[in-house]
Fold these 4 entries.
Entry 1:
Amino acid sequence: MSEARPKPAAATSAAARPGRPQNAVLSGIGTTIFTVMSALAQQHGAINLGQGFPDYDGPPDVIEAAAAALKDGRNQYPPLTGLPELRAAVAAHNRRFYGIEVDPDGEVVVTSGATEAITACLAAVLNPGDEVVLLEPLYDTYVPSIRLLGGIPRLVRLSPPRWELPRAELAAAFGPRTKAILLNTPMNPTGKVFTGAELAFIADLITRHDVYAICDEVYEHLTFDGWRHIPLMSVPGMRRRCMRIGSAGKTFNLTGWKVGYVTCDAGLQPNVAKAHQNLTFTTPPNLQRAVALGLAKDDSYFRDFAADLQAKRDLLATGLMRLGFGVLETRGSYFITTDIRPLGWSGDDMAFCRAITEEAKVTAIPNSAFYAGPHPPDHYVRFAFCKRVPVLEEALARLAAWIGAGRARSARR
Ligand code: PMP
Ligand code: GLN
């Protein structure tokens, strides 16, 4: 028999691939800087102070609760908007920390991480052509998520070292096509915590232009030196306009779990829920049950959590300052922004991050990755301090040796 067999798929040549263009937004972006730098860290055996994840585990009782929930039949689809006990815990958490009264049945949606929540909240309100106001530097999923939905980002830039709100520019960014603002406080990568006065200014713009606010508040419990997180939702007039996003990953040192939660008015919740229904539909029920237990923890858990991170921030900030970095103030989040010019570095931030990864064996993130607009500053570098103390000390020792050897002053351009 000489019947021709169908060729295996692997034998299909590249020339036979479809020629039609794929999605322009996704084709136009690269792999996220966090993945790129973590891979580089691994390749060079470097201490990873780049991607923001703790190198220690979450609370044992929360992890135990998840393990137990795996074994008691909690393994099928949970309700679309989340397990009732987690929705109740999210509502109670809002009341306890911010005095925000929430209906757990009609005003909460549990998502697969804050990343999904951000897209779901954007999708809930945007139509193609709608504008969204954003503050740079910003988390790298915001702009692609908006563009994928056909929205148009309007970027307003904060300036280092103080990252103050540029009020006139912000006001000028709002117009008849503005549908929403996406606000991140405490802010990644700057470590800024928005003040009551700044939030009142933003709230006034939101009301005057009749728009929505997507509030990325994943670092709500990571504030230092007496700085307190204020949800925009708690500002007068904002309750029905805000979609407030939290993340168990950040609040419980469990970044791999990807459990997020949206709190919003009953008028917005159905669309957020329907966006979630079309993105992932539900979120693992065993993890949800454990996060419900976590959110109900004593106030002391949240206090100790912030105090522990503050000590790590102090250790890293002081060490970097001693080494000659310009160290910007961090009031919240996992991150310290440093100015690399005082070291004598003559290249850009990406070259610096590559050099310290390859030569000092310490990895950080170039801040220019947090800009979507043209000509970002290229002499700032972000270090994560959510690491064990000996790891932070070792990273500082490695950087000290590298700087001591004159490597930061080598010509790079
Ligand atoms: N927003 C900001 C500002 C972040 O830094 C992160 C980091 N993970 C996220 C959202 C995503 O959170 P999650 O891991 O819960 O998706
Ligand atoms: N939020 C983390 C950071 O800013 C990383 C999250 C991610 O890798 N997607 O470093």
Note: The chain has a mean pLDDT of 95.
Entry 2:
Amino acid sequence: MPQNRAFPELPDSPAWQALARHRDALAGTRTLDLFAADPGRFDALALTLDTDEGPFLLDPSKNRMTAETFDLLCALADEVNLAGAIQAMFAGVAINETENRAAFHVALRHLSGKPLPSGGVDVMPEVRKVLDKITGFVSAVRGGVWLGATGRAVTDVVNIGIGGSDLGPAMVVEALGPYGREGLSAHFVSNVDATHMMRVLKRLDPETTLFIVTSKTFTTQETLRNARTAREWLVKALGEAAVAKHFVAVSTNAAEVAKFGIDTVNMFGFWDWVGGRYSLWSAVGLSIALAVGMDTFVGLLKGGFAMDEHFRSAPFADNLPVALALVGIWNGTILGAPCHAVLPYDQSLARFPAFLQQLEMESNGKGVTLAGLPVPTATAPVLFGEPGTNGQHSFYQMLHQGTLPVPADFVVVARSHHEVADHQPMLLANALAQTEALMRGRTAAEAEAEMRAKGMDAAKAKALAPHRAFPGDRPSTTILIPRLTPETLGMLIALYEHKVYVQSVIWGINAFDQWGVELGKTLASAILPELTSDAPPEGHDGSTAALIDLVRALRGEESAGA
Ligand code: G6Q
């Protein structure tokens, strides 16, 4: 971390204050020195979880932290009763307090066969009923039994949804690409910008296309607009009667599904205790199951379940989600890093950072505690990322030499589904080298000596040295996955879900609501009719009123000229 930044003030509790003192004591220490002082550092700090493919490993040792740091962070977890919060989650307690409901996504992948009650009612029979319905439907579609209105089998599935009803399934379908089947493609349309829909429809044949309208509420403006456009496209080609064979719904709102014109026999339900961004494990994952098959979808659930069992039972010191969360608290809240990069070294995980943007920033981008008071610490950092090695040729410059500290998670996959020539060793070498370079850095003297050794004249080498120096000591965590399978992907997603929950408990905030998305929606509803009206826009600030006028004028010119 750049050393010239002032550390944030921390709350006045014993655990936070102990961490503040520890932080000050560690301030002059470099992570590399910690390795030099303790040859057993990696073994002491790295955590693993067994999988069929080999160990799933979390290595936090390249963060400026010691075993004592973790002990103090665990004391903080005890101070906020994290153990009780984890228990509450698995007991189906209404931990989403502002909406008075459970956040019970763990039930969706609870494969033990045992009951899992929430509010005294075992939810598993309902969960299994929907899973059975999905299994039957997937088998009918993939087996060519479910046919379109003209008797042809489905070749393309289009998920129409947005936010939590899009990002998870889209990310997983891409991640599990190697498990997909020739002849059945999944597409995702989310943006209300017609360009998104049109680009997808252009490639499709209505006779062989199945639309899944995925919306928990079935009132989401963007999704309903897109669904109507898709419906019009289909009806134009095949007639009204075709809708029944080409549209299914995933929702909790049967009345609105019926109103849209989808027979609720073809609706796959879920429950209010499934939050949008935690819903890919539910019927919201129908597009996943169709794209990669039911066995693969169940494999994903198994991976999530394995991480759940670990999370609820492992002591904090050995607990991967807890450790990942504590590293984030240390780097962000305690050392003051405002950003966080997630860098998957696997092209299949290209959408993982986008998925995490929602998971982390919508869950924990909050400024008010559960008690309605201002949060006294920093909460969710700005999260961004791109797959390596592409990111290296883009924004890594800032990670290495910028003035803002950016702790990073390197998600590294050892064995590829495409072991072609030496692509994979090259990818892996880059991943490991980046983590090493970020920590090690290079002094100006080293840079100068290197240039001199290559024959550069002394004055030029001296002048260039500050530009070619790297401060180093930039924190990173490596998550090493043996191979990206349904199970290990499920583990990875659940790892981050639980990380987010742990952090929310430490910050005292609700990870499961998203009131911050409401205001913009309300104002958009007010502006929409104004864009097509002649009346002067009312009740807006000067900028918004002028922009409304200008947009009207520009669009008027456009239609006049069309
Ligand atoms: C996720 C959010 C949000 C939601 C979308 C779509 O946690 O709640 O992203 O998923 O707004 O909502 P619907 O599924 O109701 O259309």
Note: The domain at 516-561 is CATH 1.10.1390 (Phosphoglucose isomerase, C-terminal domain).
Entry 3:
Amino acid sequence: MSILVTGGCGFIGSHACVVLLDAGYDVVVLDNLCNSTREVVERVAQICGRAPIFVEGDIRDAILLESLFSEYEISAVMHFAGLKAVGESVAQPEKYYDNNVGGSRVLFAEMQAAEVKTLVFSSSATVYGDPASVPIAEDFPRSATNPYGDTKLQVEDILEGLYQQDSGWCIARLRYFNPVGAHTSGLIGEDPDGIPNNLMPFISQTAAGIRPVLSIFGGDYDTPDGTGVRDYIHVVDLVAGHLAALEYLDKNQQLLTVNLGTGQGVSVLEMVHAYERANQCNVPYQIVNRRPGDIAECWADTRLANQILGWQAIRTLDDMCRDTWRWQQSRKSK
Ligand code: NAD
Ligand code: UD1
């Protein structure tokens, strides 16, 4: 039996391939390479000693999906394929609705037709909008502050509808907090195109001298040091949470919604200093205006994931910083 991993060449999907192959599953990757390269498949094979099957294609291609489900014995899908740049989603909302919502609809319809009804979906803490308090629990109200976030809300709702119509579905909606880090091999990691939007790749590129200075967006938040606070989670812990969810769904038919985070808030300044300490490097920074749409603090209540999945993040901030730096260094020699 195989697991279909959509978006399996991307940052999180590639780490999911590793954890699945290591756990003994066969893996079929479907990726259109709009934000990744096929080289990732070889790198996953280097890490695991065996390769996933790679199919270049789009989740919006119903005919391709139909042929995949008939050719391979797929028992479940991990669905990572999607666009994720918040700013771009504001500029080009249709592109996001078409890819993230339209693509998911096609995928779910083809799963239903093939009687493959086990799904792990990449949702996001962005569905909590601007939360009234922290830590954030799964039953907090949901809202979207941008089209990207709205696509996550819509797909969550589609999944709820599917489950209500047919309780044969086994669905995990995993709400990620801030995934960072890289595999310890330095072979796979986050590879943003152009100027990074997210903090960790920006810190790495600044430490590597690719960017002269990190702009810290806002020093006047109501937080202990005035900078924004987030729940950064190591990508290897995150994908371990996916494996735990898959194994849980194997025994329990239901619609599961859980946060994947560490439960610890870390400020931007704390992250900068942790990075410098862990890697003995220098990250020049300047404090600038707040980024529109940013919230002051966001971290997870992780009790549900602990209780239901028996999972918790174990990697430290130091691990996140060291593994990101190892990956960054390996990019330099590419
Ligand atoms: P990524 O861009 O690195 O990976 C996504 C992959 O999907 C890429 O390889 C891309 O080529 C592929 N893809 C996109 N659209 C496709 C389509 N229509 N058909 C086939 N392949 C397609 O992103 P990531 O960081 O690995 O994120 C994976 C998922 O997790 C996304 O759905 C994202 O929204 C979600 N998520 C990510 C974060 C984060 O901080 N990285 C946080 C919360 C949720
Ligand atoms: C952002 C998205 C969120 C998405 C997530 C993962 C926004 C408003 N939110 O979350 O929807 O799910 O990425 O892709 O874009 N920071 C700096 N300087 C930088 C970059 C970031 O100071 O150059 C700060 C931010 O203000 C924030 C923290 O670092 O306080 C984390 O930022 P980032 O990595 O972009 O993640 P989020 O904003 O939490």
Note: The first strand starts at residue 2 and ends at 6.
Entry 4:
Amino acid sequence: MTAVVMMAERQEKLSVRNLVADRDLTRGDLRLLFELADRVKTSPGSFSRALPGKQLAMIFEKPSLRTRTTFEVGITSLGGFAVYLDHTKPRLGEREAVKDIARNLSRWVDGVVARTFSHDSVTELAEHGSIPVVNALTDMFHPCQALADFFTLGEKFGGFQGLKLAFVGDGNNVCHSLLITGAKLGVSVTVATPPGYEPKAEIVAEAKRLAEETGASIELLNDPLEAVAGAQAVYTDVWASMGQEYSMHLRAQVFAPYRVTENLMAAAAPAAVFMHCLPAHRGQEVVDEVIDAPTSVVYDQAENRLHVQKALLILLMQNGRA
Ligand code: CP
Ligand code: NVA
């Protein structure tokens, strides 16, 4: 009996066909994904024929080390393979309509992973295609990152009960995903940004609504020291995301008080871990002493991208086309 058949007998399916934004996944989906990711991580050989011959198109408008490698290695180690589509130039929609790209790809491959500037591009791919579409980062969200991050926190702390994560820096795509997925899992998320760099108000409002159901709290502050108090995880990301490099000079000044230093880590809960989605700009948002410390889990997060995304691909692609 193959691992997939065994899994199908034991587990429910995901409630969705695509992962466009973090809000798509229910709490049950998250549980299912994490359970499978745990088995994929512990026993990768059992899943080597989970997706035999399945073809994954990987569209990238932006650079990537972790996402590209983990999706390509992931699908290959499940028995399928990937085709890389460099869309740095032209971006999606410039040479032909996004819906035409979605309809073409649906005739050739079994799934699409897409990293785009505009979040609407991934939404449109999902709307107009008949195959699963996974958001591999847009300007609004990075759901695969949040999945790996909370999976990592679950491993480190034996679950999510009572956890608090402090995000310090820019209220960006990664911050949005951590807010929504954290709220769903019952992890309290406090965000400290400079004034004017807060996460989008509608995402914060959505996270607050979700947190009411799980007993978590969502807080927005400007003071990083206040934000990390009592946090088991201190998370930061680059001050200028891909596409915002033009504003780096200004941001370097605005964000300087938000650098994660040993002093800031000392103000968090005892044994707090340091997290970063990577790539890191050492000496800017985080100092070497913190990212290289034993309490840094950044490479565990990066490793878990592979396991969590393999679980996601299995759950989304094992059932074939819509
Ligand atoms: N964290 C992350 O998505 O890394 P890449 O940009 O290298 O894919
Ligand atoms: N916020 C960063 C994340 C990189 C993985 C960016 O969008 O560039």
Note: The domain at 143-301 is CATH 3.40.50.1370 (Rossmann fold).
